[in-house]
Each structure stands twice: as structure tokens, then as C-alpha cells.
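Reviewer 2 asked us to include a model.

Predict the structure of this chain.
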Amino acid sequence: MSEGALLVLEDGLVLPGRSVGAPGTALGEMVFTTGMTGYQEAVTDPSYLGQILCFAAPMIGNYGTGPAHVESDRVWPEAVVMRVAGDRAGSAGPVGWRSWLAEQGVIAIADVDTRTLVRRLRDNGAMRGAVSTELGADELIEAARTHPPLDGRDITADAAGPPRTLGADGPRVVAFDCGMKRSIGERLAASGCRLEIVPPSTTADEVLARDPDGVFVSNGPGDPGAVDGVVTALRQLLGDVPVFGICMGHQLLGRALGLQTEKLPFGHRGANHPVQREEDGGVEITVQNHGYAVAAEQAPDGVVVTRRSLFDGSVEGLAAPELDAWSVQYHPEARPGPHDAGYLFSRFVSALG
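Predicted model (C-alpha cells):
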């Protein structure tokens, strides 16, 4: 029989649920994704380190799980929250979703009023929360209120994988791994480059010693305003080697170019985010997972905003043409999701010659 569970927010919201994963208590920033598919890809995305992930779609887990759908070697959210959680085999593989979460040791709860939770986060912004099969409401709320926020924390080293190389031929690209999804490296290498993936602590001199044709900066968790090491390296690399960044990499490039970053009220997470290109007015439907954005009310000389969100007008792309540097806020690999932006990896690699 499944255990009872509680979910709380630091503002005092209490919602009951039912444990469908491992027992225990989890603390973190409560966030939600609107994606209806890709649940296994989502929870294995290192960008969710330090967060509790709520799926806004009413039913999650209805096509099974399998190794082809993971983006890393572990589950990253501190806990997973759902309204209805399936547990059948399906097109993704023979193991049911709930069974897989339990096997992974993930704290996961279902039968939660996720509609109320998502509306609270949309109205009041992202906040700290907690999930537990052990503690009462008052104790759990106090734990959430005293848990360290993500703001001001650099946790990219905790999310990065080991140094590794993908691809054998083509231009040499050095990639800063701030918490890179597996499919990002695979898509870049498939675009025709030799990809050398390095930790976020790598210095500019160490990058240049590899004689790169280009530099890539990946997605990752935490506050981009605290990731000073990568920003310092990028400032020293700009003008010497082409740079392309996505998601957190976009934010870090923005900081290296003299812009600031800011926290969004509740972030962008899902597979249906419309982005408009400034160059031609075209719209791309994109996959996104971020809680911070580049603030660009007044871009420095030589820096242009290339894309904007059609949801809230936030900056979704930057370029510094004279420095051969550019970035997008969203995920071109789109695993899963619309493939409108898939051309961006090939564009980057082909431009390197």
C-alpha cells in the first residue's frame, strides 16, 4: 500500500498526496513544466538540480520508460510531483514510470492538486518547497523556509559530467559542461565536429591550449549570476574563437558581454514556447527549461538582441557579430519537442569551416 505524503510551499500552502516512489523528505525550489511528454528526459536533465519538479499535465507516465530516453546517468530533481502517474510498459520501454522512479530511489508523489500548485507558482512566483512521507505540515513548512535558495549559488560543478570526447572528425569544439544533457553533445557531434567536453572550472588558457575552432557553453542549473569562472573564461576567449551558448550558456555569454541576468517570476519550462526572430519576424516553437533570463533593456555597443519570447518579451537570443559570438535561450536538441530550432547546431558547426 502506498504511503501518504505532503507537499508544502514556504508561503504555507499544504497539499496532500500519495507516495509513488521512494520514501523520505526532499527540499528545493518548486518549479513546474508544461510538457505533456518527455517525462524521463525531464527528470534526467541536470538543469533540475536543487529543484522539485511538478508536471502540470494531468497524467504523466503513460508510455513507459527505457534507456533511450535518459539524458544523463541519474535523476536530478530532489522530488517529482504529479496529479496522475502511470505505471505501464509502452513505446519508451518495458518498465512502468512509477516502477522506474522507485528503482531510481526518487521521492515522487501523485494524487496532488497540481492545478492549485501551478496557479500558486504562477501568481506568486517560484518559491522553496518540500515533499515528505515522514514529516507533518508545520515541521515541513519550517524546513522549506530555512532551506538555502538557489539565488547566488553556483552548482554547475555538481551537475557536470566527466571530461569526454564525442565525434572523430571536423572542426574541434571545446564545450563547457555546466550540466549538459546527453543529447546536446550527441547532436553537436552529429553535426560534424569533434567535441571535447570540459568542466566549468576550465580556464581560457586551458581551452586555448586545445587549439579549438569554436567554443560551446551548455545548459545547467542554479543562478547564472554566480557562475563567475565560466564568465571570466568567456571574456578572455571572446574575439579569439567563435562562441555559441544555449540556455545557461546564453545567460553566461550575456554576462561576459556586459549584460546582467535576472530571475523570472516562475521560469519557462516546457515544449511549446514561441520565440520570434528579430531578423525576419519568423517564429520558432521551442523547448525551454530555465528560471533566469538576460536583462537587455540597453544592450552594449556591438551586442544585439536576436530573439524574443512571445510569452513575456524576455530575451531569447543574443549576438555579438564582431566577436563571432551568439546564443539562444532555448534547447535546439528538443528531446522531446518541436524541431524548429534543430538547425542551430549545424549552423554553428558549418560556420567553423
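Residues 276 and 282 are 6 Å apart (CA to CA). Residues 156-351 form a domain with the Rossmann fold fold (CATH 3.40.50.880). We have added this to the supplementary material.
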